[in-house]
Design a protein that fits this description.
- The protein is 43% helix and 19% strand.
- With 433 residues, the chain is an alpha+beta fold.
- It folds into two domains: 102 residues, Umud Fragment, subunit A (Ribbon); 275 residues, 2-Layer Sandwich (Beta Polymerase, domain 2), CATH 3.30.460.40.
- Strands 1, 2, 3, 4, 5, 6, 7 and 8 form an eight-stranded antiparallel beta sheet that branches.
- Helix 7 runs antiparallel to helix 8, helix 7 crosses helix 9 and helix 8 packs across helix 10.
- The protein is globular.
- The relative contact order is 0.08.
């Protein structure tokens, strides 16, 4: 193995066979990867690099970079590879051979984003013709607007907020255009107990690529699967935020098409709440928020228009009692991306308790959590960071949706343990010679 690694390091262009599924859907098992040597300073976030980690050769995506090291992670892996230093980097993957065909990963990204954008434009045009009140929250259109280029990774979904009174018209448009509604409920009982539906995903496949529209009926960053959670956050605030998001939307031009996106202060607020929803994890989420802020508010002085954005954001944060939820996001943003956030902003959005001040200390923004574990963490965060008094938060223990969800998770865990145990017993024992 060491001999092979040494040969690869000395060579400029040597193929390496892919194994495992850590980079699906970009790489498949047995794909042949071609990489070339590259200077550390030339490596960019979203490059796919081959690295030496212990006795392994790994080809993973760069998700974060500093002057001294970078962090890589498989697209299909929950855990990152940790800090990778220049001496560990063998080269950058620039070409892939699959079943006799050779392609550049960049071409795949461009193809996927082109097909995706065409589909988004098609649906957007139909929504406009029907007079539907909607706004794009995040996704490919916003990436193209702020980045000014196609994404260098696969975009998975597109989030759209639709006025509740227009939902059935929007649903009809999606279904008529070949989309299917994805059921997020744990079971039929869970569907019955849920008081409201907040997010409804619609999906279809185009030329082998999945296209997903996450249709939101209101701005709820807590538990889409559980619905209304008054014990943690006042529904009246969520309703008002939803109205404000739709009322203040702005029209921008993206690739010669007009799109409705969120007003700047609300876009920054929404992206921060979205990061909270993912338990303060996801380097690409922070990176995008960092770029939105730098694009919208490049300076933090009161003289510059950017100062107005921070003042408006402060007012909304305090009025809607979102301090505990978003304060850790901006602390982590400043820590990892040196985002130009004025000190006065941190002072004016101080959390309501000391726990929120320390919430960011142990967060690893590069690693994901298993779905069940992430749900438990999110629930814990909501309980701890909720602006509601303790007595009201404790009422969550009487919430039928929560009680059912807890029993469902425990039952699934027990079933998994029993299945594993049963499988182990069925395995034949090998005889030692």
């Amino acid at each position: 193995m060491q001999k092979i690694i040494n040969q690869l390091i000395k060579s400029h262009q040597i193929p390496l066979k892919s194994s495992g599924i850590s980079m699906e859907p970009i790489f498949h098992e047995n794909d042949v990867l071609y990489f070339k040597k590259i200077a550390f300073k030339s490596i960019k976030v979203n490059d796919i690099v081959s690295i030496k980690k212990g006795k392994q050769l790994i080809s993973h995506r760069v998700i974060y970079k500093t002057n001294k090291y970078l962090v890589t992670k498989g697209d299909n892996n929950p855990i990152s590879d940790g800090k990778i230093f220049p001496k560990q980097i063998i080269g950058k993957v620039y070409q892939v051979k699959r079943k006799g065909q050779i392609f550049d990963p960049e071409q795949l990204y461009l193809l996927q984003s082109t097909l995706y954008f065409q589909e988004i434009v098609k649906i957007k045009t139909k929504l406009d013709k029907q007079g539907i009140n909607y706004v794009f929250l995040k996704g490919l259109p916003l990436h193209l607007y702020f980045e000014k280029t196609h994404p260098r990774r696969i975009y998975l979904d597109c989030d759209v907020l639709v006025d509740k009174k227009d939902f059935f018209k929007a649903e009809k448009i999606l279904i008529k255009n070949g989309y299917r509604r994805y059921n997020q409920s744990l079971s039929k009982i869970h569907t019955f107990l849920r008081k409201k539906q907040i997010e409804l995903p619609f999906y279809k496949t185009i030329n082998g690529f999945s296209v997903v529209f996450d249709v939101h009926l209101d701005i709820d960053w807590m538990f889409q699967q559980l619905g209304r959670l008054e014990e943690f956050y006042p529904q009246k605030f969520i309703d008002q935020l939803t109205v404000d998001f739709l009322r203040t939307k702005r029209k921008v031009k993206i690739n010669n098409e007009f799109f409705f996106i969120l007003d700047t202060k609300y876009l920054i607020l929404y992206l921060a709440l979205h990061i909270f929803h993912h338990n303060f994890r996801g380097a690409f989420r922070y990176e995008f928020l960092n770029k939105v802020i730098k694009y919208s508010a490049p300076h933090s002085t009161k003289i510059h228009p950017g100062g107005v954005i921070w003042a408006d954001l402060t007012i909304r944060t305090n009025d809607f009692k979102l301090n505990n939820f978003i304060y850790p996001v901006f602390v982590l943003l400043k820590k990892y991306y040196q985002t130009p956030i004025p000190k006065s902003f941190f002072t004016t959005i101080q959390p309501f308790n000391n726990v929120a001040m320390k919430q960011w200390n142990n967060v690893n923004i590069f690693d994901d959590e298993p779905r069940v574990h992430a749900g438990i963490t999110r629930f814990t965060n909501l309980f701890v960071l909720s602006p509601n008094p303790l007595w009201k938060r404790l009422l969550i223990l009487l919430n039928l949706q929560v009680i059912y969800s807890v029993f469902w998770v425990v039952a699934k865990k027990i079933d998994q343990i029993l299945s594993t145990s049963f499988t182990m017993k069925l395995k034949p024992r090998s005889n030692s010679l």
